[in-house]
Amino acid sequence: MRKTALFILFLFIINNVKAEDTISKSILSAKKKVFPALVHIQPIKEIFSSGEKRKVRVTGSGVIISPDGYVLTNNHVAEKAQYLRCTLSSRQELEAKIVGLDEWTDLALLKLDLKKAGLKKVPYAELGDSDKLQVGQIVLALGSPLGLSRSLSMGVISSIDRYFEDMGDMVSPYNLWIQTDAAINPGNSGGPLVNLEGKVIGINSRAMIFGENLGFAIPIKTAKGVIKQIMKNGKVERTWIGINWQEIREYRKYIGNKKLEGVLIANVVKNSPADKAGLKAGFLVTKINGKNISAVYREELPKIRLLISQLPLNKTITITVSDKNKEREYKIKTEKQGKISGKELQCDEWGISVEEITPHISRNYQLGKENGVLISGVRRGSPADEAKIQNGNIIISIDNFAVNNLAEFEKKYNEIIKEKGGMHLLRLKIGKRNYFAIIKGGNND
Amino acid sequence: MIRKTLLIIFIILLIQNLLAANWYKIKKQYENNIVVIEYYEQTESVETIVEKSRIKKYLTGILLTNDGLIITSSDIFKANLESSSASLFFRPSQIPQEIKVKAGKKEYGKASFVGKDDDKGIAFIRLEKPVNKRVKIVNKDSLLIGANILLLNRLDKKFENAFVINQRKILARINNPSEYYLCEQTMEALSDFGLAVDESGKAVGIYKAKNSPSAGKMFHFTMSASNFPLEITLFKTIKNLIKNPPLYKEKDTQRKKWLGVYTQPFTRDMAEYFGIPSVKGVFINTVLKNSPADKAGIKMKDVVTAIDGKKVSAEDNNDLSRFREIIRNKNSDKALFTVYRDSAKKEIEVNLSETPISQFLAREVSSEFLGFGVKELTQDVILSQKLDMDSEGLWVSRVERGGWADVAGLQVGDLLLKINGWKTNDIKTIKRHFDTVKKENKEYIMMFINRRGRTQFLFINIRNESING
After folding, report:
1. d(CA B259, CA B250)
2. Digit-coded pLDDT (tens) for A182-232
3. Are the C-beta atoms of residues B366 and B384 closer than 8 Å to each other?
């Protein structure tokens, strides 16, 4: 009896050792495949702070996805970079250039300068299939957390369809997120999330502040689409019609039709293509260009936005609205999706930096119809500071000239600073009120 | 010789003594007229529909007339009645309740709220049964810097509401927007409000602590740090208010005059820029749509140099408050503005209107069933929420925590545009919609709202059965 028990115990131990052995082996083999393709990115960025351009060095991660040195990373790692230094796993340092940025998905594609480094090819990682992921599956997160290079952490997939609403500049309208408990820290950003086959299934991008083991990765499927477009055009262009969508889960219950399909229009942006076509909030849309669309749950909204973003630009599309089982069609002329963040310009003489007002900024600041440029920083003690101009003010006009955009502002500003002396009247907007400031032009010395 | 000198000195001392205030006499003279006001303040919260609690509060008051008029601090009712850009929340919009007045051990009985003046920071209440007692006020013309001033107040409950006299010196005279004097803080009394008595024992004015500008106003309590001086206002400055106290009549409360512009100082640089270097005035930077200024044709960039022939000017922000004061306190609606436009002088006649009401005076209708309340959209809400001036809808002023609307995601500040497809533009019809919704007793209710410039639908799910059966 005792012997049997002992034997069983023995068997258990052997079994356990074996299981641990297999996982360990899988991890090691996966690591072997991806580790050489891991890149530690140290961009020197030019950012505007208190009205001045400043250089800062940040740190992030990336993954090489082709032998000729294309690197996939986050937009927030690469954007505004003046210089990109990449360190490979082999500790070799290479320079890289930006091929394309996409702020709407927070992805960026870089190209390593192999020639300069005297290399013919570099190790790269294979891209996997993020559609086949399962909750509970073991994944590895690779990167340089907090600048600690070449680090690996392990976890499982906690969720495959995490949905995030837009929050300020953090937007992700076109994708759901992979949630993992593998440790993702700042600096891991842009690094790969890898399955046990050693294939990249996501790009680690976000972590929850004050959360523990809550990391989020962009599915590689989203990245694949972005890579394809950037390779082709150097940028990602999207189509925009000006509708905010809402899922119909509760609407179904409200009207008492459990089988209702479609998606609800929550908001129509003023003067957008949809507005011009006569679409209104509250309409139930069932088809786009004859193709059925439906979002019962909000997790289904990204795919509808993606579908619209991929429609041809400046072309007429048909939207079918269902109203009490009757269908109506609306023709909409598509437009190009605007930017999130705008270009910035430093105005040394006045001591301010100004930013282009994108549709995104306009919405966040609730600017309405106002055209102009946004003051993103004011240098202390500068002429602008003395004229009580503040961060967040909008410059509407200079003297009697309206400045409708950054280009118009830049032109006017350059004209003014060439003059000697003189005074200029700036009309600024603060919320619903104006403020007029006098700035003395040019160098008075 | 020596005797004579001594006599003179003695006489001088005697006269001085006679002239100087005798504290005992002052106590006797004023003790019964400096009263303790006891009242209840409703604690208002955006998270409850029904007011559940109230706080007992105390203030010092001064009996002014034989028929029982008492002046006190406007802290007694903190809500701004007129449209202003001040913070929107945290202030009770209900007048003080169950006011009782006493002086030491003498009970004067119940009193009711009369009205208040936010610019001056004073309020009035009236005893139900007059007690035939009053402070004899003196309209003294000015106070001398360095002169002694006695500040009369009541201490708080732990000191048995004892009558207290503090002696201070007048430190400064300020003329903007209207005349007042500063002196140092005194010991902490029942309230930062009391009677100011001059050296000869005459009641010359009231004193108030200058509240810390922002923090104190935002919360229920008044923050008066010791580094903020006390302000003494002479009775002559407020004699018209005492004669005709402002009357609180909810939405019909008489309000001050309104032009409907935003202004900024017209600096020398600006004068030079506009080619009118010698002109002084007030610069109009914004004209609100459909305001009296807009209707009269006052334009952005106009420089106002005179109102009814009286010169106005502002070199810094402090001067702007005087401009505001002149307009607000005008007796008639008609005002003649002298302005410079494109360096040419112009005269514009304006029909001033009453200042629009603030959200505190706006009618509120709430549905206990749905768990939220709405108010009509007032101008102060439109401006502070950066809404378009022609915005529609009612403004969600309360959402009951844990109520059905809260669960559905409704937030304070949302604009309610529709409920179950009915437009909700009018506070008069919303009550009917609320009643219908309750009567219909459907499981789902659809609301169409505008949140920060973007519309969306919210669905309220009413669950009638409780899980306990």
Report:
1. 22
2. 988 888 899 999 999 999 999 999 887 777 888 999 999 999 999 999 999
3. no
CATH for A239-336 (3.30.390.30, 2.30.42.10, 2.130.10.10, 3.40.50.720): 2.30.42.10
ipTM of the complex: 0.86
CA of A367 to nearest chain B CA: how many angstroms apart?
A: 8
- In whole angstroms, give the CA distance from residue B32 to residue A88: 88
- Of B454, B455, B459, Cβ closest to residue A254: B459
Q: Please give the CATH architecture assigned to the domain spanning B28-250.
A: Beta Barrel (2.40)
Chain A positions touching B270 (Cβ under 8 A) are 425, 436, 438
Class of domain A127-233 as given by CATH: mainly beta
Site of tokens 């440029």:
A373
A282 CA: distance to closest CA in chain B (Å): 8
pTM flag (> 0.90): no
Kindly report the CA angle at B304 between B299 and B307, in degrees rounded to 5?
120
Write out pLDDT tens, residues A125-184. Answer: 999 999 999 999 999 999 988 777 788 999 999 999 999 988 877 888 999 999 999 988
Tell which residue, B165, B194, B168, B200, has the closest CA to residue B182. Answer: B168
Q: Which CATH number fits domain A344-440: 1.10.10.10, 2.30.42.10, 3.40.50.300, 1.10.260.100?
A: 2.30.42.10
Distance, CA of A329 to CA of A331 (rounded, Å) = 7
**Cβ-based neighbour number of residue B55 at 10 Å:** 12
The CATH fold assigned to B364-461 is Pdz3 Domain (2.30.42)
Question: Which chain A positions have a beta carbon within 8 Å of B443's beta carbon?
Answer: 253
Chain B stretch 249-308, residues whose beta carbon is closer than 8 A to a beta carbon of chain A: 262, 264, 267, 269-270, 272-273, 283, 285-286, 300-301
Secondary-structure class of domain A36-117 per CATH: mainly beta
| Average pLDDT taken over every residue of chain B | 87
